[in-house]
Design goal:
Layout (H helix, E strand, L loop, with lengths): L8 H6 L3 E6 L2 E5 L5 E9 L2 E9 L4 H16 L4 H12 L6 H12 L14 H6 L1 H4 L9 H12 L4 H20 L8 H9 L17 H6 L6 H12 L3 H5 L6 E2 L2 E4 L14 E4 L2 H10 L21 H8 L9 H12 L4 H7 L7 H6 L5 H15 L14
Antiparallel strand pairs: 1-2, 2-3, 3-4, 5-6, 6-7
Helix pairs in contact: 4-8, 7-8, 7-9, 11-13
């Protein structure tokens, strides 16, 4: 064994600049500015580890006691650095509550979310159903029973979809906690799902107008109001209501609408814009909307900002319809499947979906704009009264 206790208290006080060994890995490091640092060098699992034991305010006797403690931890096969970090976290348990870690996980992830998550939809299932019950619990203490008890009241009822989203987000938060070095049970969400059982409430699809009936509905949108025009353009383009409601006049160039990448749902690359080919009918609707432009937006609300997400849905509700605006995307997709020979990837791209495996996606360098332009022209013809005859794409087999 190497010699120990080489230094004296008197030497420590007057030690010159340099590194001075007290033995068995304990060193005094004296800096040029007169400051000092105690450092313990250890070997754990074949790896060299260094841990600071304090500065000049730590006496030689205290440094030796600390060194003895952490040597015994290393001798037991545990990492002293990680053990000390765990002790610090345990002393500050209020900093590792589920609420704190959730907020940190959201900050790290929001760049991937639409509008950086400002609409609150990512956080909403947690804020409503989880954090009121578990927010103050240290994330290291959360297990499958906590999650089950939290979500059980809504797992089989009307809140089933929110419960599914909450469970998925809890998994993301626990993975974030693990990345921070916290000892959490990453299997807790999966085990909670097993305890909850299969949800008895089937996911409800948004009711959609059959593609054959779209022309009849479109014809009723004859008034040049913001709501009628917005619904018309929604039907003609197949976009989601978000990009449509926030459509700006400067996004239209010629017969193409450029939707900013960060406005597209489900896309990891938020820098990639999406180009929507506009039919003659769509351009006509846009021209009718231009007189309403305010602050650059073509569909402003009566007071401030743009029309709400519910504005178009309310019109359909007042008519006694069960269908909703988002359903027109299904109408378009069914028409593409039944009345055109468009390949699957082209039809999916019409709706802004990114189809194919990861390998296919990584090599694809086209957005099928020419094929989509033909399809959207024919869709507009159908919507405005033409028959649903088969649409052939140029070059298609």
């Amino acid at each position: 064994m190497r010699a120990r206790n080489r230094l004296s208290a008197a030497f420590v006080k007057r030690a010159p600049e340099g590194k001075w060994c007290d033995g068995a890995g304990l060193w005094l490091v004296k800096r040029p500015d007169g400051g000092a640092q105690w450092v313990l060098r250890l070997t754990v699992h074949g790896r060299r580890r260094e841990m600071g034991l304090g500065g000049a305010d730590v006496s030689l006797a205290q440094a030796r006691d600390l060194a003895d403690r952490w040597r015994s931890v290393a001798a037991a096969g545990r990492d002293p650095v990680k053990e000390r970090e765990a002790e610090v976290r345990a002393a500050r348990r209020e900093d590792i509550t589920l609420a704190i870690i959730t907020a940190d996980a959201f900050e790290a992830r929001k760049g991937e979310l639409k509008g950086e998550g400002k609409a609150g939809r990512w956080m909403s299932p947690l804020e409503v159903h989880v954090l009121p019950k578990l927010g103050r619990v240290p994330v290291t203490d959360i297990d499958q029973r906590d999650i089950r008890d939290c979500l059980a009241p809504i797992w089989h009822g009307r809140g089933a979809e929110a419960a599914q989203k909450a469970l998925q987000r809890i998994g993301i938060v626990l993975n974030h906690a693990a990345a921070l070095g916290l000892e959490v049970d990453l299997q807790a969400p999966a085990k909670a799902r097993a305890l909850l059982g299969k949800s008895r409430r089937e996911r409800q699809h948004i009711p959609a107008v059959h593609w054959r009936d779209v022309p009849e509905f479109y014809a009723t949108l004859a008034e040049p109001t913001i709501t009628h025009l917005a619904l018309r353009l929604l039907i003609l383009t197949g976009v989601r209501s978000g990009p449509l409601r926030f459509l700006r006049a400067d996004q239209i160039e010629g017969d193409t609408w450029t939707v900013p990448g960060d406005a597209m749902k489900g896309r990891k690359d938020k820098t990639a814009d999406f180009f929507v080919p506009l039919s003659a009918e769509a351009l006509r609707v846009i021209e009718l909307a231009r007189p309403f432009e305010r602050d650059g937006f073509l569909f402003p609300s009566a007071r401030k900002g743009v029309i709400s997400d519910a504005t178009m849905a309310r019109l359909m509700e007042r008519r006694g319809m069960s269908e909703r605006p988002h359903g027109f995307r299904s109408s378009l997709r069914d028409w593409l499947a039944e009345c055109t020979d468009a390949p699957h990837e082209v039809a999916e791209t019409v709706l802004g979906h990114v189809a194919g495996s990861k390998v296919v996606k990584s090599y694809r360098r086209t957005d099928f704009i020419d094929q989509r332009r033909v399809l959207m022209h024919r869709w507009a013809e159908h919507v405005t009264g033409a028959t649903g005859k088969l649409v052939k794409l140029a070059g298609a087999g």
